[in-house]
Amino acid sequence: MKTKGMMILGAVLGSFLISAGGAAAAERFSDLQHVKWAEDRINYMADRGTVAGYGDGKFAPDKPVTRAQAVTFMVRELYPEQLQSGAVRTSYSDVPTTHPFYREISVAEKNGLASGFPDGTFHPDTAMSRAETAAFLTRAYALVSGKQPVNLTDVHDHWAAAPIHVMSSNGLLGGYPDGTYRPDRTVTRAEFSVFLSRVIRFERQTAIVAQDWDKLISYMTISEQVGQMLMPDIRQWNGQATTTVNEGLKDRIHGQDLGGLILFDKNIIDARQIVKLTHDIQQEAGDIPLFLGIDQEGGVIKRIPGGTNLPGQMALGATGDAALAEAAGKLTGEELKALGLQVNFAPVLDVNSNPDNPIIGMRSFSSDADLVSRLGLATIQGLRQSGVIAAVKHFPGHGDTTVDSHLGLPVLTHSRDRLDAVELKPFRAAIDGGVEMIMTAHIAFPSVDHELVTSLKDGSSVPIPATLSKKVLTGLLREELGYQGIIISDAFTMNGIAEHFGENQAVERAVNAGVDIILMPQDPAAAHQTLVQAVKKGTIPAETIHESVKRILELKSKYGLFDQKASLTQKLGALKTIGSEAHRAVGREIAERAATVLASRDGAQPDPIRSGDRVVIAAVDQEQAEQLQRQLAKASSNLSLTTEISIFGQGKISETLQRMEKADYVILASYQFRNVASQFGWAEVQTMINDLNKQNTRYTLLSLGNPYEMIYVQNIRSGLAVYGKQEPNTHAGIQVLLGQLKANGRLPVSTK
Questions:
Q1: Which of 123, 254, 406, 414 is catalytic?
Q2: Most CB atoms closer than 10 Å: which of 230, 340, 383, 560?
Q3: Which of 466, 550, 613 is nearest to 225 (CA)?
Q4: Which residues fall within 8 angstroms of residue 196, CB to CB, at 6 or more apart?
Q5: How far apart are CA 492 and CA 520, in angstroms?
Q6: Which residues face 129 on adjacent strands?
């Protein structure tokens, strides 16, 4: 009766253990109140799918763990795939095929995890002792002696003295206050969970120290592996901006075993707050740190609070100076690193050859592929010098599109020869220069991959975007261009992906295409579960995940993420680099050298502002006009100027024209970005230019955005491009108009 009772109990537990791998992560036990010392470890092992309860939320932590249960836990941990394979056999005479743990014991015997007794028995339902636990674990994990002293008084002559010594010398087991180990005492389920978790964490840490990423991956669950491949945003939780590590963020980090996060404006209050946020995130991460990334291109795309917002990439293009681009990358990296960020989604390597591009524009260095290549490589080198990873974008090239991939699916129909000559050239240069992360574009390139798929939006046939194309990412980027680094997708929230492909299908297809990291999945939990199930079903090969995770771990190690030892106080002390005078001086130099004459009466410089002039500043934006007015007043304190602002647009042009008639000088501020240039409202600008020409008034059309005015506005007699409406850009423009600075920049894009 006793044996039968044990068999029934084993059957209940065994049936639950069989399914533990799929459901254990969601299980939490209600009977751990009096074993708080073991609660975290039990939950950790349950999350790994290694241990399980008896149902109804019961773990029974004080029950002895049997030899059968012990090997089951270890087999589930070390050889889960063998449980799904064909028939196995055991030679133990007391383990019939009907035993609930027959398969697990067979796998354990096959792999030498546990031995039987001389009479050919295994005693599967006998409670484990502390000595047997040490022997089982030492054998299973091939542990060797460590360096910690062993002072246990009752194990010297014990049969398990050697494995107990190995475990103790590595800090994996301890004795009682009286110095004994009590090797023959039985082990509870709670104790065994603790012992096993200690060994697993020890082995993981050993792998990290040795930079043995294959070994570390072998100790990572499928959930942990695919979690490394997800990098969601964390802008809000419960309707509030995420600026601290709240419960929602904790749940996301642990629930999806995340490998990274991208931060946005909503996550940022000031520099001290973001340092504490990034510090606390890494504290929450566990033994594998997170990539923390941000978009800090400079210019129109900026994130650093109180930092040095540089004039932007097209301004650098106007200088043509690679040394300045390298300095820009270096100072940007220094400020990001001080904030606890390791990945910058920059520089943009798109060649902006199309003035109608609604999304790239002045985010690009130039319409010249060679100039983009040269300045892009210099920026990458600068970021690398500061210890920040450059994630260049948007491969294979977003510069000649007229659709914003945030809003739709652009299709670039150029021939392969043209792609090689223009779009791909900067990426080739970056790869040759050792770039370590490349972001994909949600753009279709039929000359590389002509596959059509059915859109979920309207049932139409749409070309496959680069992000989901194996021919583009594996065939072109990896095999043909020889790229070995990390491939990260552009945001999965963008309509180029979101509208046409279900996210689950898109996530799986992206990984099979060659993407290592999915950026900003719409539903991170669903994306995570999709990848877990795809690996289990075999629709994504385990080797694919392994290769991606290894690349991720290697790069995290290369940039010191596993070695973060600085305290929060030390990190806060490093904030003096943010927006330092030395950094701002670089920004001013870029802006001053970028200022470019678009049109001039004398063929040299724009119309000058003279002493005593009545100056009208005409703009569509009140704040921008006021910024120009402040800068003009500060820079011309000895010129006795009179200034006024006139806001045009939305039917107010007549008032502006009236004010301009009384002006000696007009600054006509033009800003075109995030729209198709040919469809921009140029008519009002043309009307004002015509009127100024008719009145023979001195003026300058001050281009603050994409510098394409000369294509769409005729008869401009005085024009200046500064490539951005940031303070350094506009201040440089004012200096030129006052004759304090010569505009020597060269227009980096074609206007023909």
A1: 406
A2: 383
A3: 550
A4: 45, 50, 51, 73, 74, 77, 137
A5: 5
A6: 186
Q: Are strands 452-454 and 437-440 parallel, antiparallel or unpaired?
A: unpaired
Asked if 616 and 660 count as a contact pair (C-beta separation under 8 A), the reply is yes
Asked if 304 and 269 touch (Cβ cutoff 8 Å), the reply is no
8 A C-beta contact, residue 423 and residue 461? no
The first and second tokens of residue 172, run together, are 């994996």
- Note whether 564 and 289 are within 8 A (CB): yes
Name the amino acid, one letter, at 20: A
CA-closest candidate to residue 714, choices 681, 670, 678, 683:
683
Two tokens, residue 519: 């950026």
Tell me the two tokens of residue 109: 């015997």
Is the distance from CB of 639 to CB of 630 less than 8 angstroms?
Answer: no
**Coil/strand/helix, residue 397:** coil
Query: How far is Cα 520 from Cα 503, in angstroms, rounded to an integer?
Result: 11
Residue found by looking up tokens 């240039």 in the block: 677
Active site residue 490: yes
Single out the residue of 379, 394, 381, 308 nearest to residue 349, CA to CA: 394
| DSSP per-residue codes, 643-706 | EEEEE-STT-HHHHHHHHHT-SEEEEEE---SS-GGGS-HHHHHHHHHHHHHHT-EEEEEE-SS
Query: Do 556 and 562 meet the contact criterion of CB atoms below 8 Å apart?
Result: yes
Active site residue 406: yes
Phi and psi at residue 717, to the nearest 5°: -95, -20
Residue 594, amino acid: A
Cis peptide leading into 707, omega within 30 of 0? no
Paired with 617 in beta bridges are 645, 667
Residue type, 216: L
With contact defined as beta carbons under 8 Å apart, do 130 and 182 qualify?
Answer: yes
pLDDT at site 27: 63
Catalytic-labelled residue, pool 125, 321, 490, 607: 490
CA 207 from centre of chain: 24
Q: How many CB atoms lie within 10 A of CB 8?
A: 11
Read off φ and ψ for residue 221, nearest 5 degrees.
-75, 165
* Type of residue found at 752: K
Rounded to whole angstroms, the Cα distance separating 116 from 93 reads: 10
Cross-strand partners of 530: none
Say if CB 376 and CB 430 are below 8 A apart. yes
- Paired tokens of 431: 């790869």
Residue ranges, the chain, pLDDT below 50 = 1-26
Cα dihedral 175/176/181/184 (nearest 10): -140
Half-sphere exposure of 636 (CA within 13 A, CB side): 27
Task: Give the global pTM.
Answer: 0.92
719-721 vs 698-703, strand pairing mode? parallel
User: Could you give the CA distance from residue 674 to residue 351 in angstroms, rounded to a whole number?
Assistant: 16
3-state SS, 141-194, equals HCCCCCCCCCCCCCCCCCCCHHHHHHHHHCCCCCCCCCCCCCCCCECEHHHHHH
687 has which bridge partners?
A: none
| DSSP annotation string for 67-109 | HHHHHHHHHHHH-HHHHTSS------TT--TTSTTHHHHHHHH
List of E strands, 588-638? 596-599, 614-619
Output the pLDDT for position 25: 42
Among 672, 745, 679, residue whose Cα is nearest residue 709: 672
Measured CA to CA, the distance from residue 549 to residue 428 in angstroms comes to 24
How many angstroms separate the CA atoms of 740 and 372, rounded?
30
